[in-house]
User: Fold this.
Amino acid sequence: WIHWTFTGLDKETWGYVHIVFVTLMLITALLHLFWFNWKVFWSYIVLRAHKGLRYPLELGISVLLGVLLWMGAVYEVQPVIAVVRLSESIDASYERKTENEPPIPHAEDFTLQRVADELVQEPVEEVIQTLAAKGFKTLRSEETLSVIAKRYNTSPNAILDSLKVNNGGASAPETEHVQGSGAGWGRKTLAQVAEEMDLSTDEAVARLKVAGIAVQNASAGLKDIADANGKRPIDLVNLLKE
Assistant:
């Protein structure tokens, strides 16, 4: 949305690099294991397994520990799930409201037609004319903000900001910051969601209670609360907006 780059590469290009090198790593690992060293590897496994049977206590403890960790992750039992919650809290710490945040999730994929209809609420011809006056020439209504941004080496955010003018151009309306089901609500706690929606924790719990949603702990993950009540995280968000 803001066209960030690192060492000259944008997010999409870094994604391409990531996929290529991970694929190379997997191919190399498979060749290393199955093509070049399978006999050596299998002989080692057989030898270690045979020796492992001589130490039943240590083997049993290892198996039990593995099962406990597995069950703890699957059924979200403390302290195992604390590791997952820590990861989620770190992720959530980067999700802050800023003036550069898109009005709705994945707005960079909006076509100019959709921008005109949903964000600017002006005829698409006027939107194209306004952008042309800002230097964005030869645009088509079916082009997306991300495609146009890449062509002009700018950000989708900058293009949308270009429409927020009052001197003869279109003026983007004030839009409520509402995120969709893919916006990461499920990774946040109810308390975090309430804060982002300018609600007190007690008010959020009360609104959900009126809608028949039981909340035992406001610090629980929104996904956990939704799952316990047969809902999706976005369903709870919509209830909180009512």
Q: What stands out?
A: Residues 71 and 190 are 25 Å apart (CA to CA).
